[in-house]
């Protein structure tokens, strides 16, 4: 069994001790002793020194109601503090044995040649799309305190601290833990879409604003050292985009007004951050020697401080932009000032002039300093920090056109077949006549779709990115968006992205794109560039993780082959969630398992919810994440894994069929599944958490099928069954072991796609706990449904045994002892939360309601289990 690194263990101990002291001071010795007794008993269970959980359950059942809330808060906060210690350690020098990027570049430069590698590094493009999917349980005020704790832990490791400095930092740590304890960890109100966008901008301001130029500087230094060439100044390996304020799929709270407000907020915050940069640069650039070109652009043709003079005019424009955006956000109706910042070039031109003058004047080190950082920020973040994607469900566009064709007495667009729809749309797209009447009776939903398109037309092109169509099923879904944008006055060819997210949509995706790429009109519109989005969450919910993963692979393969035939520059956009059940997992494994040719130096990925904080919440953490992305993308481009052998394809196809049957026979076919799911899990109670602005269901009515993938995964994670990440995999592996066991072993050792899937499956199983799930069943599930629960838990245990057999290891996670130890450290704190959650759910459901204090305790158990499992949805 691997041990946690000494520094990490020490930080966990320090924070745990401080939490204990705070508990003792604020809640008293009696409660402190109860917490310690529960913790000790849970630890003995985890170590196997206690026989079964009944003793712990009995102890928890004897708690007085008044003690339950502070006790669950204590266990929740320990788990959060342990996560902070984790985050700090893995972004520290202690955890970095070597620079993985440097090692990779050194190896590849000799394998493929320096010139080829330099070309790739110069054009590398990784688009990270920050989304507001409601998986971040932790309040933002606590997130800020946790970040301060992480920074303080890091500062305490400095070797040059004087005694008073060390004491000061220790005092700050104690104060922060006390602040955390005395802060309500549960939101009282659901955040608005604008609140979510503000949080996204805060991540950029506090972390990415520093990490991005730091990473690019490091990237450039490695290129100089290993390849002998500096990378271009306009290098853009990372660009950031956002769905916060743009994603209206199933979220009526995201309106065109919200979208415009978020864009304005982005421009305001960008102006503010660039102004701060310029004030710093003004202090740095005090030199008097400058190029003739720079001097010629000054008002008087000369100045004792020419660089400051050149900055002054840009600073004035930013101040105008800041004032205008601030007043507009306050509700004033103001035209955009002529001298506001309208385009990225408005920022770049004067700063590039200064940079060129510094180089020409012999100030190369100064030119490569903070001014280069500012230029790199402009390339990465533009005039609004994170241009918005607009996302809408395909049926909303169908509804608009159906209302329109009915009003114009052309028939029902909804009832037309695909051929007739395409003919109509292409005719209108090629026509110079307007189609939309000035005034016509349109429903509120359709009016909002049109208002969004008109808002796109009003906003600067640089503040927007792609239009993503959820549940895209046919070519007309893409053409309909193009027509609505045209009719709304959008004068630029906004990239339209079909999102293929169910099993059938993934299977038909290449056929849809083939139809589009044959159209002359669409060829002119796209100019040889196309982004296609692959949905991981809904496909896994639709077909099970195993079948969905294989369908995603095949869809990407077909799209890449087809794009090559049409000479299309294809970008695959991966809609991954945080959990394995929603496409999450380590970046390195995800990229290594992509089909050959599907990366090609360019990739687009969503980052969402709590994963944004885990990956980008602190500058050092963000730097490491950016480096991991760059490594994985370069490696997948230069040394892609070969295509699978035909024998592997045949076997995994049969395995996928077996998995699909196993998954759907339960989720869709078992008559007790829905009542079992609803009674076992806190699915109905999750709404108490006020996670995000988006409703849990796409439609107000409907059962599990209408439930979004996030609460679906969240609910199963709470009861530790983790069903979305593994159901159906047992049947797939059973089939392979029975039919072709040797071929299965060959796939495991020679096919990175398959071995990565098995590794992720093992991680899911390692975090599951069938005994805890069994306790929920006994407490909450009617007798008539328990046979299903027994089957599912048996399936989980049998699958774990199969994984151990296939990998020839005595226990799960044998080759990842750090993860196993991390799970073991958290288990004594998660288990009591699970037992108490089951008890509180039982009380609330039997009585109809519980006291406000106990309801708060129930919500805290949800947050604590999420923190302990390291993900929600």
TrEMBL record:
Keywords: Carbon dioxide fixation, Lyase, Magnesium. The active site is at 133, 541. It catalyses: oxaloacetate + phosphate = phosphoenolpyruvate + hydrogencarbonate. The keyword Magnesium applies. Pfam families: PEPcase. One of its GO terms (biological process) is oxaloacetate metabolic process. Its cofactor is Mg(2+). One of its GO terms (cellular component) is cytosol. GO terms for molecular function: magnesium ion binding; phosphoenolpyruvate carboxylase activity. The keyword Transcription does not apply. Belongs to the PEPCase type 1 family. HAMAP family: PEPcase_type1. This is Phosphoenolpyruvate carboxylase. It comes from Saccharophagus degradans.
